[in-house]
Structure formats: C-alpha cells, structure tokens
Amino acid sequence: MCVGSVATTCFNHHVLSERPSRFARRKPQDPVTRRDEALAFVASEATWRPPVWFGRLAVVLVEPTDPVNIGGVIRAMANTGFLNLRLVRPVGFDPWHVVGVAHYTQHIVEATQQYDALPSAVDDRHLVVGLTGKHHRIARNALPLPDALARLAQAAQGGQNVALVLGREDWGLSNDMLDACHLVTTIPTNPSYPSLNLAQAALLVLYQLFQGAGGQEQAFRPPRRGSVPAAAGLLEDLFADLERALEAIEFLKKRSRVHTLRSLRVALYRARLDTREASLLRAVVIEVRRFLCRKGILSEVGPIGASPSVNLTHSGGSGTLNSGPPEASPTPDS
Questions:
Q1: Rounded CA gap, 205 and 185, in Å?
Q2: pLDDT tens, position by position, 174-193
Q3: Which residue, of 112, 155, 170, 282, has the greatest Cβ tally within 10 A?
C-alpha cells in the first residue's frame, strides 16, 4: 500500500503503463488550422483564433503537487488558446504522463519552463496577478475578478508581458509568494465550500479571457446533410398516412378524431420539419400498416398519401373526421 508522498511514485511506476503513449506519437494539432469535421464549431481560416496578446500571458503554477492537475491546467490552456506555462518547483512533473492527461498538447508541454522561485518566474512580467482564496491581514491590491482580468487583458493588449499566478493545491499562495504579485483576486464561490481544484480555477479564469476575446461568438458547423423545409404537399401526405396508422391500431377508437388529428397537426407544424424528417416520419407510419398486414391483422395496406379528391367533412355531428369513400389502393411507394 502506498502512503503520502510515496503514493505518487507508486502510482506512476506500477499503475501507468510505460509503453509510448499513442497521443505522444501523434503530431500536435494546432486548433487554429485543425479542420476535423467532427468539431461542433467551424474550424477554418475565417473562424476564431487566439489573438496575438494571448502569447504575452504566462500561466505560472507555484509548487504544483500533482501531475494530473498540471495536465488539467495545460488542457484548459489548450482549450482557450494560451500556450505559455511556467512551473515553480513542480513535484513529479513528467511530460509523458502530462500528455496522457492533456492529449495533443505537446506544443505546450515541450515549451513549458521551470523555475526555482516565483520572483525569477515573473522577472520579465510587467503585471502579475495572483489568485488567492484566503483572507490576509495585510492589505493587498485586491480587485474583483472581472476587474483584475480586465486589467490583465488591457496590459497584454498594450504590449506588456503579464502573468497569472496560481498556488499549490493544499494551501495556495503564501504571503511571500503574494509579495511577488502586483494585484490579487479571488474566484467567488459558495462560502461554505470555497475550495477549487487547481485546473478548475485555471479554466474559470482563462475561459473568461477567452470569452472577452470573442471566443464565444463562434458559429456552429452546419449539418452535413442539409434539407429544405418540408413542402405543404409532403406534410399533407404525412398527416394522411399518420391518420391511417392510428386508425389501424385503433388509437382513435375512444378519442375524438378531429381534436386528436388537429393537435398532432399543430405539433408537427411547430416542429418545422424538413423534407428528410417528414419523409422519415411518413415511412414510419406507413410501415405500421405494412407490419400489421404482414401479421394478418390488416387485409391490405390501403391507400398511401393524401388523395387530391379527399373531402374532409364532419359526419352528422358525430365529432369524427371522414375522408370520403375508400379508394383503390395505389402501389405503395418506398
């Protein structure tokens, strides 16, 4: 059994396979040029791409103790378009294991820089913002999160190098570490449970910067098989075949035919079916009668589609909707 700090070593060496990761063998996929059609959003030269000032922001993790959390932060950075990661005295940092958590992020992992102290990690930064959830007796230059991120973005857009500093998982940033931060801010959470996972905290902050840079305005990818709205004639065929299917299974036997069919008509109109959807539904209700015919419950499939001579009338105040006399059954279409 592994205990304490030994647990990380035991986990790394005995649980994870040492075989080359299939993700490490693949080339990094740059989200700017990636054109995978499985993506929900359009990925092309005209779509959103990280602005230049994103490259001026460094994410600094101070003494992270879990490689999985480092991988989570790297994944959050890749999701939001940030590439510059700096680590201060990381515990157990292993690029191979990190790539196993954050797939296709070799371009970030390989560029990650390591430092022995926070001051040296932010030595070239013009604005340093630290994240803290603690109450400090000493007055700090504390700003609400939106204001702090606005200052960070404004400085980077103006050509300054900036840094976002996050502390270790168990106690965050010490007073000595906060002394290296020009501003501090806090992510508002439920006061009865304020603690955030390191990767979650990074994602919450980076995603707000991503949104502010227009990332949320991306357009959804159109469907591969576009279809025009169903024409009125096709819908009338659907309604006619639907009525016959309901009649075949005696669904209308104890219900008002007029009200039931009218409610279904209104609901299907509201759905704004396209041609493919209407044809699919029509095929379903036609197959109901074909199935009953194969089982011997119906003697014949009967008419298909709406007849141009259909006369929808109320019969003698009975509350039913008649379709006129039965007609010869045309050859069922496919």
A1: 11
A2: 889 999 999 999 999 998 88
A3: 282
Strand pairing class (313-314; 321-322): antiparallel
Say how far apart CA 75 and CA 199 lie, in whole Å. Answer: 9
The answer to whether the CB of 41 falls within 8 A of the CB of 178 is no
Burial string for 212-224 (b: 16+ CB within 10 Å, else e) reads: ebebeeeeeeeee
CA–CA separation, 272 and 264 (whole Å): 13
Specify whether the CB–CB gap between 235 and 268 falls below 8 A.
yes
**179 and 257 co-located in one domain:** no
Q: Nearest to residue 118, comparing CAs of 180, 172, 33, 59?
A: 180
| Number of domains the chain contains | 2
**Residue 86 pairs with which residues in a beta bridge?**
60, 113
- Rounded Cα distance, 31 and 51, in Å: 13
**Cβ within 8 Å of residue 14, ≥6 positions away:** none
- Token pair in block for residue 195: 């603690």
Domain C-terminal end among 217, 249, 271: 217
Residues 49, 100: one domain?
yes
Check: CB of residue 40 under 8 Å from CB of residue 221. Answer: yes
31 lies in the same domain as 126: yes
- Work out the widest C-alpha separation in the chain, in whole angstroms: 93
CA dihedral 272, 277, 281, 282 (to 10 degrees): 90
Is there a single domain that holds both residue 187 and residue 243? no
| Residue indicated by tokens 């993790």 | 61
Domain ends where: 185, 217, 249? Answer: 217
